[in-house]
Amino acid sequence: MITASGVTKSFGGRKVLDGIDLEVKEGSIFALLGENGAGKSTTVRILTTLLRSDGGRAAVAGRDCDKEAAAVRKLIGVTGQFAAVDELLTGRENLRMMARLYRLDRRTANERLERLLEQFELAEAADGLARTYSGGMRRKLDIAVSLLAEPRVLFLDEPTTGLDPRSRMNLWDMIERLAQAGMTVFLTTQYLEEAERLADRIAVVHRGRIAAEGTAAELKRLVGGGRIELSFRSAGDAVGAAKLLNGRADALDVVVPVASEDAASEELRLALNLLHDFGLEPASIEIERPTLDDVFLGLTGEARKEAQAG
C-alpha cells in the first residue's frame, strides 16, 4: 500500500533523508520510530504529497507521490503533530466545515459526521466549542476530521504527543479498531511503548536512514536474548555463583547473559541445577528480556559511533 525506495531530501545543503526504503502492507499498522530530527516528519510530508522528494520514489497504492499527487490525496487522511481544529467552532461544526471542503453532499456528510462523533466518543461534547475540549478530545476530533472522506490510508504524525497516559491509551484503542476495520495506518512516534503496542512492523530511523526494520520481536533479537539476574543472601554465595555461571557478581546479585530469548528458560534451568549441585540457592530470580528501548539505544548508539568514526 505504501512504498518508498531510495528517497532523499535536503534542506539548505543538509541531508535530512539519505535513501529511505519502506514497504507497508495494506490493512497493517506501520510505525516509524526515531528521535527528534531523525527524519520522521519529513518522510510523512513526502508520502502525503506536502513535500517533494529530491530523489528516489515514494508511492501510495501504486500512485507516485510526486507525479500523481492529486490521486494520492484522494486516498489518504492526515493528522499532524498538533491538532488542526478551529477552536472557535464546535466539534460538529468542525466536521461539517471539513465535509463541505471535501464536497460531500449534505446527507452523506451528516451520516458520516454523526457516525464519527459516536465512534470517537464525542457525541455528548459535539455542540461544545473545541477550545473547551481536553487535549485528548481535540486529538480525537482531528482524527475524525481526517476520516470524513473515508481514506484507505491514515497518516498519524506523532499522534499522542502531549497527551496524558489515559488519553494516550484511549487513542491507541481507537487506532487498533481502525486497522481491524481494514484501514492502513502509518504512524510516527518517539514512544517505544506506542510502537510496540500498535505496530505490526516497526522501522527505526536515525539520521535520515532506516537503521533496522521488523516486528517488535525481530528487532529485539538484534540485541541478544537479555539476561538472568540472581540474588543471593551473602556476597560469598554471589561470588561463587558468578564463577560457576561465568557471570558478573555485583554485591549480592549475579548477572548472567542469555544467548537468545528462546533459550532463556532452558539456560535458567541449567543454571539452577548447577547451583543446586554446589549447594547454592538464589534468594530471587528474574529474567530480563530485551526491550525496544534496548533496540533503539543500541541501533542509534552504533549509528552515532559510525558517524563519529567517519
Protein model, in words:
The chain contains eleven helices and 14 strands. It is an alpha/beta fold and 310 residues long. The strands form three sheets. A six-stranded mixed sheet has the order 6-7-8-3-9-10, sandwiched between helices. Helix 3 packs across helix 4. The two termini are 36 Å apart. The relative contact order is 0.13. Residues 303-310 have low confidence and may be disordered.
Provide the helix percentage: 25-40%
- Low-confidence spans: 303-310
Largest pleated sheet: 6 strands, mixed
Strand content: 25-35%
Structural class by SSE content: alpha/beta
Could you report the average pLDDT, rounded to the nearest whole number? Answer: 89
Calculate Rg over CA atoms: 24 Å
- Total beta strand runs: 14
Give, in order, the helices and strands. EEEHEEHEHHHEHEHEEHEHEEHEH
